[in-house]
Amino acid sequence: MDFQNRAGGKTGGGGVASWSDANVDRRERLRQLALETIDLQKDPYFMKNHLGGYECKLCLTLHNNEGSYLAHTQGKKHQSNLARRAAKEATDQPYMPLPQQLKVEPKKFVKIGRPGYKVTKERDPSTGQQALLFQIDYPEIAEGVTPRHRFMSAYEQKVQPPDKRWQYILFAAEPYETIAFKIPSREVDKAEDKFWTLWNKDTKQFFMQFAFRFDRMSQHDEPPPPPPSAAAAMIRPSPVPPPMDGPCFSVGCYSSDAVYVPIIVCNHYYVTSKSKDTCIILDSNITGILHYTKSDNSTEQFKFNISGNADGSCEQTQYINISFNSSIGLTNSSLIIYFKRRNDSFQISNFTLTVNFEQKLNATEPRYMYLMDDHAELDVSTSIDEAYKCSEVILSFRGGSTINLHNARLIAYADFNTTEFPGNQKYDICQLDVRTSDLVPIVVGICLAALVIAVLIAYLIGRARAKRQGYASVILDDAETKIFHLDRLCESLKNHFYAGSLLNNNEKNEESLAGRMLPYRVRAVNAFLRKCRFCLLLDTVKALGSMQIDAHIGVDERDIIRFEAGHVARLADGAAVVSQGETSVLATVVGKQSSAGDTADFMPLTVDFQQSASAIGRIPTNYLRRELQRNDSDILASRMIDRSVRPLFSKHYSGETQIICKPLAIDDDGDPVILGLNATSAALTLSDIPWEGPLGAVRVALIDNEIVVNPSRKNMKSSSLDLIIAGCDYGKRILMIDMDGYKIETGKFSECIRAGLQAISHLIQAINKVKDLCGRQKRQDVNGEIDIDMIALMEEMQILCGNQLYDILTNIEHDKLSRDRAVSALGDHMFEKLKERSTPHKLRHTFKNLVKRSLRDALFKSERRCDGRKFDELRPVDIKMDLYKKLHGSALFQRGQTQVFGTVTFDAPSTAFQPDALSQLLGAQQKKMFMLHYQFPSFATTAISSSLRTSRRELGHGALAEKALKRLIPEDFPYCIRLACDVLESNGSSSMASVCAGSLALLDAGVQMEAPAAGIAMGLIIDEERSDYRILTDINGLEDFAGDMDFKVAGTMSGYTAMQLDLKVPGIKPEMVMESLEKASNGLKHLLLIMEKAQPQWRNHFKSTVPVHETIPVAIYKRHIIFRSGGYNAKLIESETGAKISVEDDTNISIFAPNKVKLEEAKMMLNKMFDSESERELVFGAMYKAEIVEVLEHGVLVTLHKGMKPILLKNSNLDARNVAHARVLGFKTGQKIIIQYLGRDPNTGHHRISRKTLQSASLPVQNMYHDI
């Protein structure tokens, strides 16, 4: 470190730093470097050249890797140049005075305490509207200060836990402290006569009054269809139930909020499915109380009975729609009650009431939809095997309206052959009707306490015995034994309790209240014992430290995959370690709880596969000696895991989720990617995140035409197939396929799929066993609830623009841009019309779902696609070859509105992709002589983007296209090939268009491919209601957006070379995959015939612009002429001619030139260099007179003639005797001596001379004295 010549310093102002000062400065620079976030793309002086090396544009230095460049940036040269550049810019920059900024002095007050206040509750006697009046006293308010107020939501404040049922109003005035009042979270009426404030300066009192609005929301004519999700409902029992003499009574009905309403008949409603099975039955007398606004803005109360017809749906989200008319003012009205299913129970999730007021009621809105109250507590819930029974259930709506279900009997998600309740139907009695004595809970509590004590004592004894024996398995066996006895004891207790109750019932009354309460009490006992069983298992897991389950997918020891959980990463939501042999991978998952009201357009899932050098026992070779940015193989592995697990998340789940896979140990034959996939499945299954797994994944190889599941890395080198398949449902459904092969036939591929799914079933069984032992209860997905507002909003949009949207989507005159503009314009019109209806984000999300649903419905309805094609018809194809003569090979492939420009570049073999040693050891990357780079610029989709980095999508699509072509390139091809595929227009399936364009460009360049390849994308649209599906050939962008599958298939006439299956649904059957492959095969053959017409075969000879290669023999002693001084002459030749010179072997050098002319120029320059430094030929064994030019410690330097490079005569060759220094023989500079020439060294090419032979009398000396 030179302080004398540092930037900004005065010459001579300092000396060279000491060793200790230099170390201090170096350590400080390294510390600052470690604290920085390294991003070389943001370094203005960082440049990656065409050779793959790195250059510093500030210092004009070359570097082989990123670590070398980072080390250079912290060196003296780079830091000095940076300082000089900064000093020069500061000198050249003109002086610019800073603008004068106004300094705002903060107000400083000493708080004197809280003000006095008074709050008055008010109610309008005519309308019943509620209001609040606040009076705040500020007797010591500061001069010139006016009190202020604001409303604050419960989520803004940090004092109390947030509760959406409340909001806060704040009052502030200096020097008093700010005070807040907690009020209901209801909308405030901002009308002039309802909301006012007053500041009385004389009395120093601040008044504020506001009223709460009635919660009403107008709807359109049609009631909403069954929504796919649910929200919380308000169902409360009446405090005073009516007498319960039977299933329905015909005298009257009591409600705390209503007067006596006569009930005429007992109504029976039911819903049947398409197969005539009954899924919903409701027996009840239904009455209602409505609050509506009359034309004079007054509020009126209306009482009515409901009696009519029912229909509904028996799909996943079931509902019952009761249509009715009222003789006293309602027509064509309907009550819809929605149900949802959770595990083995069902409950009411939502309800709406749509009424049409007759004109005589004088309502302001003739048609009105009443929505469920948001602040409700759910109560109607029971198991699917039982029916719910209650004397009275009240459904509360916004604004105070209610629907009363009297003497209700209800069941949903049933499967009855009759429309009536079976005679042996079990009922779950609501808590309102439970009337029992105090003796029953006392007896049950004593029995349960005794049971718990007995189990605890038995467990402690068994645990102590297991510790003495030293076997962990005994603990588990003993725990399982206790659980078995616990279950037997539970059954015995329930049977005894049930028999006793029945005996008591027979003695008293068969319809007694104790009989109705029996299922409730038995269910409480079951719930308590399940908790005891879970706690016992949890303690067992802690005692063991971990759970281990082995899955056998073959007969060899290597075919055993072990799943472990419970011993590492316990703070994560889910964690698992999966091992095979000596390879182990840890997967962790953490997910945030999604909040109600979130409407995410996508699932915020992040997957990171993080390779570790420690897993193979190596240290990274970069400057910081740590893992830096992810390489391409890690990104591709992350994408593969993402594509496998994403379809199993609920469509309504929007919680941010992160999955991290980290190899812990890797052996030579390990496969961390497959283990990471299975570890991710196990971690998600064990977590509380709502995920519909598990899944399993295997790698299938085809070695010597034999199917091998999970082969070793060594065996994969001789495999003609590399198939990764992920499946679920015990191997009955396929989730993901990633395939790389060499002309694989359909039949053989089907056998590989079956073998892989069979192995997957064993993996899923093992994961489920681990889940049963230590899995967590899945959290409640709040976004899985029905958003009734969004459903109603979608139906409203369907009414307003459904027909227009259908016309746009089915008009074959539209292309991509015109259709997108038409849909966008229609969406903007809807947003403007409904802007007061909901938030902009919710409107866009709803409209997007409407477009997707409309396109799917139009496809099934018209049996045609949006551009008029049949399901198996391809888009028009246009091909142009050899667009630019300068390029080594080029092709422009157009399919529909997807256009890809493929360019082939040949270069020297030294420019091949060379991975670092760590990547090769991990098996992540290998040397590549063929590279395909896929580029997707933003203008291809009429978009604007400032990102300069290669996205994960571009890496994935490029890797897929490279797999489709790499096995068709000759292995002995003399050049390194780079195929660049630039997407110029995109309307779907651009990656498969890159395969077609790349294959044509290679043929145009003269690459002797074994066969041309093509690619096609297959789509799938499933209609669950109709239990039907449609397979689409060559999908466009809109079909990819609305479809359920994107299946990319590439291959030749002889077989498939690459595949990639991505799904949006939780798996499809293998039969559907094979059907898609058959249709894809027909499409590939059609494409290959079109490509054959455009380019029948490869070019017979390379273009004149293709680089040329020649090997020239060069003596080993002449190489220093080319490569001395850091290869100065070699770089000089390359800069002037573009020819690259490299060492071929011991006697030859290789010249790689852009063309033949440049090659000849490079050879001429080489010959001139050799001629200018040619030496006189010396005769072997001859004697020459040499002049000493320098005396060294280990010899003397002599020259044989003028202009000749000095030759070292070592001390060992000066005399026959041992000589330690030349001066003992009297040698001096300028002295002439006689030496003998012994030729050149065969290894180094240096001259060999000796004087020792002349001093030996026993050796014959040839008398050839030469005086040169």
From TrEMBL:
What GO biological process, any one, is recorded here?
Answer: mitochondrial RNA 3'-end processing
Q: Which residues form the signal peptide?
A: none
Could you tell me the membrane topology recorded for this protein? Answer: Single-pass type I membrane protein
Query: Which PROSITE patterns does the protein's record reference?
Result: LAMP_3, S1, ZF_MATRIN
EC no. given is: 2.7.7.8
Domain Matrin-type: from-to ranges: 54-84
Domain S1 motif, residue spans: 1181-1252
Cross-referenced SMART domains: CactinC_cactus, ZnF_U1
Q: Which InterPro entries match?
A: ExoRNase_PH_dom1, ExoRNase_PH_dom2, ExoRNase_PH_dom2_sf, KH_dom_type_1_sf, Lamp2-like_TM, Lysosome-assoc_membr_glycop, Matrin/U1-C_Znf_C2H2, Matrin/U1-like-C_Znf_C2H2
A Gene Ontology cellular-component term:
lysosome
Assign the protein's first listed, main location to one coarse class. membrane
Q: Which family does it belong to?
A: Belongs to the polyribonucleotide nucleotidyltransferase family.
Among PANTHER family, the record links this protein to: POLYRIBONUCLEOTIDE NUCLEOTIDYLTRANSFERASE, POLYRIBONUCLEOTIDE NUCLEOTIDYLTRANSFERASE 1, MITOCHONDRIAL
What is the protein's known function?
Component of the 17S U2 SnRNP complex of the spliceosome, a large ribonucleoprotein complex that removes introns from transcribed pre-mRNAs. The 17S U2 SnRNP complex (1) directly participates in early spliceosome assembly and (2) mediates recognition of the intron branch site during pre-mRNA splicing by promoting the selection of the pre-mRNA branch-site adenosine, the nucleophile for the first step of splicing.
Designated name of the protein: Splicing factor 3A subunit 2
Q: Which organism is it from?
A: Onchocerca ochengi
